[in-house]
Amino acid sequence: MGKLRLAVLISGRGSNLQALITACAQADFPAEIALVISNKAAAPGLQLATAAGIATRVFDHTAYASRSDFDRHITRAMEEIGTELVCLAGFMRLLSDEFCDHWRDRMINIHPSLLPAFKGLDVQQAALDAGVRFAGCTVHYVRKEMDTGPILVQAVVPIGPDDTADSLAQRILAEEHRIYPLAVRLIADGRVSIKDERAVISGHEAPTGQLINPPAGA
Ligand code: GRF
User: What does each C-alpha distance from 86 to 7, 32, 151 come to in angstroms?
Assistant: First the structure.
């Protein structure tokens, strides 16, 4: 069976893109990156793609008359290369409703919180401000409302009393790099279906045990 063809959309650093590049470099990984798109020519992630021999395209959103026009051009570029799954990886543009409809159930995103808590930006600081004991990250299918959609994979990161937004972001990012390739693998292996707006994973077995923070007895 052929590998699932991905398009990865970025705006910046590209560390999640790199995690996907690294995963896709394994011979037995069931997906391949066909194209990387950025809305910013200066996005450092573009160099990562080029270094890995992956085609890149830049669509500068300021050059388009409307959001829909911009989105249509991106859709065409992705369709030209036979994209089967769109992976948003730090793509800092809101997407039009048409775009979300067109790629419905074929587009996923990674977000640095345990959704549905803490949508939007600066979510690590928001978690610290709220005083929650656990943060984390989520890979989810994309719907029109920002940071909503069926959840595929989450990872939990305990918060310590000395954490800052930066220290927390770093630990969350390390987990992002693990769960994004995992989510892509689940989809590429054909294990995911969407029922009643929930992502159902065949053969899903939850890990046992529990995390308590601060630890019981501490
Ligand atoms: C990540 O924190 C991701 O969760 C969020 O944007 C950031 C992108 O980082 N959507 P990078 O460009 O992948 O390093």
Answer: 5, 12, 15
Q: Which CATH architecture does the domain made up of 109-205 adopt?
A: 3-Layer(aba) Sandwich (3.40)
Residue nearest to atom 9 of ligand 1 (CA): 90
Mutate to test the pocket of ligand 1, among 37, 176, 179 (most ligand atoms within 8 A of CB): 176
d(CA 157, CA 163): 11
The dihedrals phi and psi of 120, each to the nearest 5 degrees, come to 90, -145
Question: Could you tell me where the DSSP H helices lie in 32-109?
Answer: 45-51, 67-80, 97-102
The mean pLDDT values, 10 residues at a time, for the chain of 218 residues are 95 98 98 98 98 98 94 98 98 95 98 98 98 98 98 98 98 98 98 98 95 89
CATH for the stretch 1-103: 3.40.50.170
For this structure, is 140 an active site residue?
A: no
Which residues belong to CATH 3.40.50.170 in the chain? 1-103, 109-205
Q: What is the pTM of this model?
A: 0.97
